[in-house]
Amino acid sequence: MLRRFAVLALCSTLAAAQSLDLAPEQARAFEISVMERIADLALIPPKLNTSPLPQYDYDQLDYGMTIGIERTPRGRLWAAWVAGEDGPKAFFVLATSDDDGATWSKPRLVIDAQSKNLPMFRSVLVGNLWTDPRGRLWLFFNQSMMQFDGRSGVWASVCENPDAAAPAWSAPRRIWHGFTLNKPTVLSTGEWLLPVSLNHEGLGPFQGAFRELDPYRGANLFASSDEGATWRRHGHVAFPNPNWDEHMTVERKDGSLWMLARTSKGLMQSTSTDHGKTWAAPTAPPGISHPVARFHLRRLASGRLLFVKHGETMETHEGRSQLTAWLSDDDGATWAGGLMLDPRKGISYPDGFQAPDGSIYISYDRNRATDGEIQFAKFTERDVLAKSLVSPGSKLQTLISRPLKKAVKQRKEE
To answer: Which domain holds residue 170?
Structure first.
C-alpha cells in the first residue's frame, strides 16, 4: 500500500512538472532528474540478515539463480544464489556445507533490500563469493533500484572467520558503480583485479539516467594493492554488442592478461600487456562458440587454464545446456578434454574454485523459474582429460538447494 502511494506521489510530481510550460526536452530532463534521486535510495547500505529463518526457509522460496560457490581454509563450502526473481524483486541467499557438499544448511545469510517504504523495488541481483589469499571470505553483491537504475553499485562484505559456528561479517562497503559477477584475479605482482561491469544504460523508467557515467560504461577492472582495503579503477574495455559483460580475466604465462566477456553476439576477447591498464581492440576468440550466457575461466594450480562452457565441443553449443569442462596447457590456444558436467537443458551460470587437493567445484542453476535448483559438480583434471569420472570422490549433478514454496502450496491445494 505504501509503495502504491509513493508511486502515485511520483506520478503527481511528474504530472505537475508537465503541466508547466516546459518544452518536451525540459520535461524529460526533469523526469530523469527525479528518477536519479529515486536511484539514490540504492546508496543506503543494505543489511545482512544472519538470522533469516523461518522467513527465508526453503518453503518460503520459489526461485533459484546461482551466484557462486567457495571454500574456506578449513573446508567449509559456501554457496550463494538469487531468490525472488532475475529482476527487481531479487535478493541473496547463502548456505553452507561442512561435509564436502553431501548436505547443506538451511539459509544462514540473506541480503534482502526490499522495503514497503520505497516507491519501487530495490534489488540485490548479482555478485560472487571469493576466498582471498589470507583466507578471508568476501561476498560481493550489487544493489540497484529495480533491475538496473543506470548506476547500481558494487558492495562488499568480508568474513574473517567463515569456518566459525557464528561467522561475523563486516558492514557492507560500496566499492563503485555497476556490478560484478565473477571472482577477482590475483596477479603475479600481488595486485587483485576485480571485474566490474557498467555497460547498460538504465532500464525502464531509468532510461537516460546518469549520462555522466557513459564514458565508463563497459567491462571495467578495479585494482587493489593493499589486499582489498582500497580499490581504484584500473582499466576498461568497451565490447561491441554489450550484454552485461560478465567478464573474466586470467594472467598468461608471459605476463599478459586475457579477458573474455559475454556479448549479445557471443563471446569476445581482449588482451593487455601492461597489467590491465590498456586493452587491445576486442575480437572474437578463435575456435570458441558460446551462447549469450555466463561462462567460467580460471587458472589452476597445475598451470592449466580451466574453461567451463556450454556445448559438446569448443566450437559448438545448443544454448544453455550441455555444460562441459575443458583444459588448456597453452594459455587458451588449444583445449583438451570435454567432461560433460550436465547435459540437460536449462543449465546456466557456472562458477567455481579449486580446492587444495586439486579437486574442482563448479556450481550452476537448473530451470531457475520452475525447479530453481542450485547444483554443483566436483571433479579433477584427470576427469576432464578422460571425459569421465575416474577420480575417487568426483560427483556430478549434486543438489545444493531447491525452493519449496510451490511444492508446499501444491500439497495444500490437493
So the answer is: 2-413
What are the respective helix, strand and coil percentages of the chain, to the nearest 5?
A: 15, 40, 45
Long-range CB contacts for residues 302-307, cutoff 8 Å, separation at least 24: 302/358, 302/381, 303/253, 303/329, 304/328, 304/329, 304/381, 305/250, 305/331, 305/332, 306/354, 306/360, 306/384, 307/332, 307/335
The DSSP bridge pattern shows strands 185-186 and 347-354 to be unpaired
The total number of structural domains in the chain stands at: 1
Q: Is the peptide bond before 54 cis (omega within 30 degrees of 0)?
A: yes
- Which residues partner with 65 through β-bridges? 82
pTM value? 0.94
Q: Are 236 and 216 in contact (CB under 8 A)?
A: yes
What is the C-alpha separation between 254 and 117, in angstroms, rounded?
54
CATH of the domain at 155: 2.120.10.10
Tens of pLDDT, residue by residue over 167-217, are 999 999 999 999 999 999 999 999 999 999 998 899 999 999 999 999 999
What are φ and ψ of residue 63, in 5° steps? -155, 150
User: What does 13-32 look like in DSSP terms, one character per residue?
Assistant: HHHHHHHSS--HHHHHHHHH
